[in-house]
Amino acid sequence: MEYLAAESEPRGITQITDALKIEKSAVQRILYTLSQAGYVEQDDGSRKYKMSLLLWSLGSRIIARHPALRVVHSMIRMASQKTGYTVIATKLLYPHFIYLEKVEGLKGHLLSISLGETMPLLRTAGGLAIAAYLPPQALASLPRDHLPIGREPETLESAIRAIRRRGYATTEGAIRTNVNSLAVPVWWQSTEPFGSIIFTAEDGAMPQDSYAPLAEYAQYVGTEITNALGGDKYRRACLNQFG
């Protein structure tokens, strides 16, 4: 299912077999089961397999019932209105994060990301803001090939220390050229961050010299969301671990 969801075109049984290194007979049985359940369907022309919209329907219901979503949505909407930036809420799905909610700002860049899309933790500001507060063993296990272009693995440790010292992460052009992002972590029911809040816009609307005042407000928003979720004791416990 993950393989088919990631592919832009329908895939045949042989292609799936070769990609996943699974016996052809097993692939056929799995596809039959998924087809009967409605999770995959065959393309009318090629008869190759693709994901149906059923998984999206199920995911939409899960997100709609998520207990944190109502709190997060109302607060990032206010943050977007105040700053004019696009504000995004993410959730940790180690070793990735998922885009949970988004409010477009008047000054914000109309990002092509979709809610439910995942991204490696080390790729963008939103993930780095989470990764900086993970337990050492979890941080050390993150794939270094997830680092953005231009950021070398040996500089990651110093970058993580800087994020902890400042309380926020930034990236320039991590997903799209000329788009800057600033992110802060939020906590809920664990000493590991629940996710992050990202402020993003084109570099002309969010130049690097605007980071300091924006960071102060972003940290306020992150703290308010953490408090509203009841995660302050976990935030303090996590921060105490890193001094």
UniProtKB/TrEMBL annotation:
<feature type="domain" description="IclR-ED">
    <location>
        <begin position="54"/>
        <end position="231"/>
    </location>
</feature>
<keyword id="KW-0238">DNA-binding</keyword>
<dbReference type="InterPro" id="IPR036390">
    <property type="entry name" value="WH_DNA-bd_sf"/>
</dbReference>
<feature type="domain" description="HTH iclR-type">
    <location>
        <begin position="1"/>
        <end position="53"/>
    </location>
</feature>
<dbReference type="Pfam" id="PF01614">
    <property type="entry name" value="IclR_C"/>
</dbReference>
<dbReference type="InterPro" id="IPR014757">
    <property type="entry name" value="Tscrpt_reg_IclR_C"/>
</dbReference>
<dbReference type="InterPro" id="IPR005471">
    <property type="entry name" value="Tscrpt_reg_IclR_N"/>
</dbReference>
<dbReference type="InterPro" id="IPR050707">
    <property type="entry name" value="HTH_MetabolicPath_Reg"/>
</dbReference>
<dbReference type="InterPro" id="IPR029016">
    <property type="entry name" value="GAF-like_dom_sf"/>
</dbReference>
<protein>
    <submittedName>
        <fullName>Transcriptional regulator, IclR family</fullName>
    </submittedName>
</protein>
<dbReference type="InterPro" id="IPR036388">
    <property type="entry name" value="WH-like_DNA-bd_sf"/>
</dbReference>
<keyword id="KW-0804">Transcription</keyword>
<dbReference type="Pfam" id="PF09339">
    <property type="entry name" value="HTH_IclR"/>
</dbReference>
<keyword id="KW-0805">Transcription regulation</keyword>
